[in-house]
Amino acid sequence: MDRGSMRTLIVLALVGLGAQLVDGSLGMAYGVTSTTLLLAAGTNPAAASATVHLAEIGTTLASGASHWRFGNVDWRVVLKIGVPGAVGAFAGATFLSSLSTEIAAPVMSLILLALGVYVLTRFTFVGLSSSNLGKPLRKRFLSPLGLVAGFVDATGGGGWGPVGTPAILASGRMEPRKVIGSIDTSEFLVSVAASVGFLAGLGHEGIELTWVAGLLIGGVIAAPLAAWLVRHIPPRVLGSAVGGVIVVTNVRTLLNSDWLGASGAVSTVVYVLLYLAWAGALAYSVREYRRNAAEERELVRQAEAAEARSAAAQREEEPAVSN
To answer: What Pfam family is a match, any one (predicted)?
Structure first.
């Protein structure tokens, strides 16, 4: 391997590591980040998506195993959303060369933006609602969601997480860490199906195995750390972080679309305002989490003190009873 190829491998490994760290912690962004890099390097959309999905076969397998090890996976959800997702991904990969997503992308971004705003505000100001927590997610909800998310993922080079994660989070029926773990694990099925579709339609044309290897190496290294992080980040803070990622990602898509075609100056102002709002939301979530945790610790302390006083009083009465 020459020096240039080695440098490319190292750069892509670092990109894969960073992308998987975010994806494994927040349930999205590996495909979007990696595909953006490949497109910027001049790869055609189909080959870029094929390269990313081939790498994701390994990264999602490692990520799923890590999330399972840390107890972040609901296997019923994995199957209910993953199998339809694989069908949608295969269809999207097969027809990518003849499909235009230029019109569909802004529409999808508007839907995702609305979901992102909902997730961000809900977790920031309300926290994790326990009213629906633990209720089963129905197949009639997960199957269409998986089909659409898989199709978007294959045709856009990413989208499984951005579509699936906010939709399930918004239901309030699963803890954020289990939403992220289940979405990451089910993405293995999507990646395999999309790769089969791309290989059937493109062969090896335009697919650089060195790029696949680089993205794969970085992703596999990051997978265990990301699964550990998602288990230890408070659900309220995690929900605010995920919501912010969804909002920023889809605002970027809309600003760059033909619908808006925003100038660089306008985009910069919008990004600055978004990041400031996101930082404020995260700070508020952290503060409220700490306040609620302190209140819970105080309640536990008071209960233990009351129990200790009751036990002491009972011990004092025992001699009197025996006399």
So the answer is: TauE
Give the C-alpha separation, 265 to 272, whole Å: 11
DSSP 33-79: HHHHHHHHTT--HHHHHHHHHHHHHHHHHHHHHHHHHTT---HHHHH
In Å, how far are 62, 75, 220, 227 from 82, measured between CA atoms? 16, 10, 21, 19
Residue 190, exposed/middle/buried by CB under 10 A (0-12, 13-18, 19+)? Answer: buried
Which amino acid, residue 292?
Answer: N
**Global pTM?**
0.65
Each residue of 128-178: pLDDT tens digit? 555 666 677 888 899 999 999 898 888 766 678 878 887 887 777 888 888
* Domain boundaries defined on the chain: 3-322
Compute the CA torsion angle 129, 234, 271, 110 (nearest 10 deg): -40
Would you say 34 and 216 are in contact if contact means Cβ atoms under 8 Å apart? Answer: no
State how far the Cα of 122 lies from the Cα of 322, in Å rounded to an integer. 59
CA atoms of 177 and 121, how far apart (whole Å): 18
